[in-house]
User: Fold these one by one.
Assistant:
Number 1:
Amino acid sequence: MRIDIVSIFPSYFDGLTLSLLGKAQSSGILDLHVHDLRDWTFDRHRTVDDTPYGGGAGMVMKPEPWGLALDELSTSTPESRPTIIFPSPAGEVFSQATARDLATREHLLFGCGRYEGIDERVFDYAASLGEVRLISLGDYVLNGGEVAVMAMVEAIGRLIPGVVGNPESLVEESHEDGLLEYPSYTKPAVWREREVPPVLRSGDHGRVAAWRHEQQLERTRRRRPDLLAD
Ligand code: 6GU
């Protein structure tokens, strides 16, 4: 998979060279490119924003640098059109299902907005180059799309075959089966007067599986009843 990220703060993404996604890049499974939007500006101050038509607080990202960035990066995979993702608190809410869908794509292009947002015409133009998705992390406001894209790239990247060493570890996690995951314990069996549930030390795999499933249901009922309603 190829991933392009466009941002005015490219160093936010330095962390993506670490750990599993770093390894996926060295092994060639993931082809990640981070770009500075200002590389598509030509004035002395490398301007990416301007005042809003109609007035109001804050600045709006100018369309011209975005147009040039999208033109250049959308043709980096000549055999397929990119899926173009704009992180936005006004978008559809990101979920494990979204991550699974996006993990099947050949080319993802993320455009990180700042200030009050990007000139609306950019989204319409982007739709002429690929499928456009506006995606939110949840119902709260961040200063820009960078942190949201970090989260999305990590959630998507770990679903690409070969990125997570043991694929079995993917299926038993929270949200994969619509439930929260069961609690985990390791040695010692007693720690600060707290005991590991004896069933986990019984060696009875059937009883362990039944207990874990009951724990999943119980936790989900208590912490996330909305998931059971679905
Ligand atoms: Cl994707 N962007 C911004 N700026 N704020 C958010 C968000 C995204 N998701 C939740 N809050």
Note: The pocket of 6-chloroguanine is lined by residues 87-89, 136-138, 140-142, 144-145, 148 (CB under 6 Å).
Number 2:
Amino acid sequence: MQTVRSVAELEQALSNQTVGFVPTMGYLHRGHLALVERARQENPFVVVSIFVNPLQFGPGEDFERYPRDPERDAKLLAEAGVDLLFLPEASELYPEGFSSYVEVTGPLVERFEGAFRPGHFRGVTTVVAKLFNLVRPCRAYFGEKDYQQLAVIRRMVADLHFGLEVVGVPTVREADGLALSSRNVYLTPEHRRQANGLYRALLAARSVARAGGSVAEAEAAGLRVLREIRDFRLDYFAIADPKTLEPLTDWVEGARGLVAGRFPEVRLIDNMEVYP
Ligand code: AMP
């Protein structure tokens, strides 16, 4: 595996390859590696980027303390058969004078994460658009873990004619159901024990749906579980259309439960298909 840090080196290393691309912020876990594995299966050349993108963190969020271990990450990626690792400094992607942004607008970005993290998706779409322009992949791989992000990227790729396939990869979980996340390392042991409550809430909603309950009944079942997580403060729990993320009153195929909230030391999100 070759590691490059500058745009110039990246361009040289890519020359006319058919690329599968996995953008990440590093501190890799089995969730990231599932994306890499899928990219490996479907493309002759796999590029991974690791970049903790300052633009997608709000003031007071965890940009400074976001966990980083590029050496360990590089080793994992080499073992996973990645061809090229792009590991830029912030100054490489945002040199002095940088002033162009890519923004998806409307309800898809305004609700859920967009409401709790103003500017977050603008930061994500800007950096992903830049990375797509640099890496020029045929396929790009994103986790369903960040379900709204996946929907926003699909919107951007369609709207701006990026001409690449966006592949969504199912969420990888711990044995107790907690979705893998680089941020899980922040959890205290006690909160780590409580943290699978998000998964249990989604399962509860799904059980109600599968037993013939209404959307409102499924939401109520999920909320009951969430209220019992002792140190957890809920941001939102909703059942939404899987494409537009519009909150539902009646079931549609693939309806998605979406949840987010905070333990004192970390904010967690999760989601699941709850219907049928
Ligand atoms: P991040 O490094 O958190 O920006 O994540 C990079 C990519 O990995 C994103 O597309 C995430 O959705 C995806 N990802 C993160 N956690 C998981 C997980 N537990 N399962 C599947 N994909 C994940």
Note: The radius of gyration is 19 Å.
